[in-house]
Design a protein that fits this description.
36% helix, alpha/beta, 6 strands, elongated, 6-stranded parallel sheet, 217 residues
């Protein structure tokens, strides 16, 4: 239910919330509220899509990914093979910490971001992730640097078709340099990819998917 509806003492029922939303917007002179506007104003809750964000390896970027990702509605998971590497700050932002990809719930609503391409466990972790139907997987790293995940995966017998599922670089090209900027660019790229948008400042009405949340009677 919308937060404003709860604060107003509304009954937690879909029908009551819809009626309240319509009355609230009609009081502003809007007869037929646009679902996108209602959601942007906090009057319409985002659809509960039960998405999962997995940050692989504890790092400053991983910490910001999980921090921002939770606000975006993700279930946040830190995948860290070395238990000693996870700090209290990492634990504060992760709903779950797993040491093995096999222990994590990785499905077609899961986005996986590898935040350190220099770790010795890179190939093994990615190979396990690629055995699952995750929606998206990427490895952080600038194009001017080598792509060590390719050789690591080939050494483990992973096919070129599966290796091609791994995105690199990750995120929108906004010139990000700091950990929070990189996390922000990455999450923006994931949203754009999921909603069929190109990113950037050019807007049009074309999209591959339609909104799932509507105000109906």
């Amino acid at each position: 239910m919308p937060d404003a509806y709860r604060r107003a003492g509304g009954v937690a029922s879909p029908g009551g919330a819809v009626a309240w939303i319509k009355a609230r917007w009609q009081s502003r002179g809007v007869a037929n509220p646009d679902p996108a506007c209602a959601m942007a104003h906090g009057d319409l809750p985002a659809p509960d899509e039960q998405r999962t964000l997995v940050a692989v390896f504890a790092s400053p970027v991983a910490r910001y990914l999980l921090h921002f990702g939770r606000d975006l509605g993700y279930r946040t998971v830190l995948l860290e093979p070395d238990p000693a590497a996870a700090t209290d700050a990492d634990r504060a932002h992760a709903d779950v910490i797993e040491a093995d990809p096999k222990s994590a719930t990785l499905d077609d609503r899961t986005d996986v971001v590898v935040t350190d391409h220099d770790r010795a466990e890179l190939g093994e972790c990615l190979a396990q992730v690629l055995l699952t139907p995750v929606r998206w997987v990427g490895v952080m790293g600038a194009l001017r640097h080598s792509a060590p995940h390719i050789a690591a995966l080939r050494a483990l017998g992973v096919s070129d078709t599966d290796i091609a599922r791994v995105h690199r670089p990750i995120g929108l090209n906004i010139g990000s340099r700091t950990p929070p900027e990189i996390a922000l660019a990455t999450l923006a790229g994931l949203i754009a990819d999921r909603t069929g948008r190109p990113g950037g400042f050019t807007f049009d009405n074309r999209r591959r998917t339609q909104p799932t949340a509507k105000v109906t009677s």
